[in-house]
Amino acid sequence: MASNGSKRPGFSRRARFGLFAGYVTAITGALIGAGLVLIAIFDPQGFAAIRGGVSDVTAPISSTGRGAVQSGGRIDDYVANWWNAGRQNAELRAELEIARRRLIEARATELENRRLREMVDLIEGGTETLATARLVNSSLTSARRTATLFAGRNQSVMSGQPVRAADGLVGRIIDSGRLASRVLLLTDRSNIVPVRLTRDGTPAFTTGRGDGSVEVRSLEAGRNPFEQGDILVTSGTGGIYPPNIPVAVISEVFGDTALATPLANPASLDFAIVQPAYEPSVEDAETPGEGGTADAEPGFSETP
Predict the structure, then answer these.
(1) Fewer CB in a 10 Å sphere around the end CB: N or C, the chain?
(2) pLDDT band per the 50, 70, 90 thresholds, residue 207
């Protein structure tokens, strides 16, 4: 028995109808085409009218299709622009971050160079120096305010020698090893420094408060000679600290004392220099107005 797949189209009613419709469509199209050709040859004006009518019918369809194509192109442009803008923004942010890091590095280098130039100017200005070394703060959890200096006995650094920076006095050496030493800072409660006012030479002394500031007391009884903004320098009385080293500036006056802020902040110092302990001459020790002899300085001879 023959399979259904071997049947010819003539045995299927649907196939015969489709074949007949195809023939009718082809013949109709051929006739319409022939008619249009004849009209175009024998009646050009009529053909133009027919063509205009066809254009009127197809124009909206063409316009809609063209708008859809253009809209698709604009969407592609928007997507491409958005993608490019995002990529460019990422590149600009990366360049900005690099520029910011370079600016920070440049500022840090500039600050470091300025501090080193100040130290060089201080040394070349005639200051007798035993050692120049890096200063490291190390007393955050201690009751005493000390710092570590990376210079020791190998550089002739010994206990009792003053330590200063370009901005002013830092403190004095209290312990020294072969390669490092411990510095008692100006702000320690046990550090007493004889000073004088640059405004009129009034003798006084400073005592650390342990909080980053110092207390100032005058050696002249009966009056408070301090004014806000006064500059204090070492007087040289009692030895250890050479005279005329900047110490602090008066920030507040109350009662018979004053509060002062050290000019050299150990927290912001990179380097410090160690000087030989100062030994005043007999004439300096007996000069009036400088606080008298070393014995006149209360507590200055204490041993840390």
Answers:
(1) N
(2) very high
Instruction: Give the DSSP H/E element, type plus range, for residue 115.
Output: helix 44-124
Three-class DSSP category at 288: coil
Helix (H) / strand (E) element for 94: namely: helix 44-124
Band the pLDDT of 134: cuts 50, 70, 90. confident
Concatenate the DSSP letters of all residues of 34-63 into one string: HHHHHHHHH-HHHHHHHHHHHHHHHHHHHH
∠157-160-183 over CA atoms, to 5°?
70
Instruction: Give SS3 for 86.
Output: helix
Residues in the chain, overall count: 304
Distance between CA 220 and CA 234 in Å, rounded?
17
Short-list 199, 182, 192, CA closest to 274: 182
Q: How far is CA 185 from the centre of its chain?
A: 29
Angle 44-124/13-42 helices, nearest 10 degrees?
100
Asked if residues 220 and 202 have their Cβ atoms less than 8 Å apart, the reply is yes
- Secondary structure of residue 210 in the 3-state scheme: coil
Amino acid at 275: Q
Give the Å distances, CA to CA, from 261 to 54, 211, 228, 246: 97, 10, 11, 11
CA quadruple 63, 65, 66, 68: dihedral positive or negative? positive
Provide the H-helix boundaries in 224-304. Answer: 282-285
> What digits encode the pLDDT tens for the residues 135-184?
887 665 566 788 889 899 998 999 999 999 888 899 999 999 999 999 99
Neighbour tally for 147: CB within 10 Å: 21
The helix/strand count (H/E) of the chain reads as 3, 12
Residue pair 162/258 in contact (Cβ under 8 Å)? The answer is no
Tokens (6 digits) for 47: 């053909």
Longest dimension (CA), the chain: 146
